[in-house]
Write a structure and sequence with these properties.
Elements lengths: L2 E5 L3 H7 L1 H9 L3 E6 L4 H9 L3 E4 L9 H17 L4 E5 L1 H13 L4 E5 L13 H23 L3 E2 L1 H4 L6
Parallel strand pairs: 1-2, 1-4, 2-3, 4-5, 5-6
Helix pairs in contact: 4-5, 5-6
């Protein structure tokens, strides 16, 4: 039996968009961990009822404190090692970056990422005050994506597009 992590940053997205995938992985004999933040009791029950294991981890969706962000990576590494994870599918910006790096540190043999959209950082914002922050963050994220995705075994063509965005 393989241990698989599906990791996002909001439980409703696991339920709305990844539930079928989780069910299929379980039917194929995998032990599936659904990593997310801030599960409600109802959301945990939905995940448990299909046979997956909900696991909460802490991450601020908009935080940029490098020390707190590094702590997230180290905590994910510990969780991956604790559960002896064989494969990971991460989606959304922070889970992709942090889980990919943590998986590499934890020697997870199969790491995959899916980026469905680029979000605030890679879209134009009319405010000049916000623009400077966005441009700085964009440069940092491009570097982090390059590092994190280099640890992935599989990347979709959409994921590779991040490098060509200027």
């Amino acid at each position: 039996m393989k241990s698989v992590v599906i990791i996002g940053n909001a439980p409703h997205t696991l339920i709305s968009f990844r539930l079928d995938l989780i069910e299929d992985l379980i039917k194929k004999g995998n032990k599936v961990y659904a990593f997310s933040t801030n599960y409600s009791p109802k959301q945990k029950k939905i995940i448990e009822d299909i046979g997956a294991i909900p696991v909460e981890y802490e991450v601020s969706r908009s935080g940029i404190n490098p020390f707190k962000e590094l702590t997230v990576i180290l905590n994910l590494k510990k969780l991956f090692e604790k559960h002896k994870i064989d494969a990971i599918l991460a989606y959304f910006i922070k889970p992709v970056i942090y889980a990919s790096i943590a998986a590499r540190l934890a020697k997870v043999p199969n790491t995959n990422s899916m980026i469905a959209g680029l979000g605030y950082t890679f879209t134009k914002v009319p405010s000049k005050k916000i623009e400077a922050k966005r441009l700085a963050l964009k440069g940092i994220l491009k570097g982090l994506f390059k590092i994190a995705l280099s640890f992935n075994q599989k990347c979709s063509s959409k994921t590779r597009m991040i490098y060509s965005i200027s």
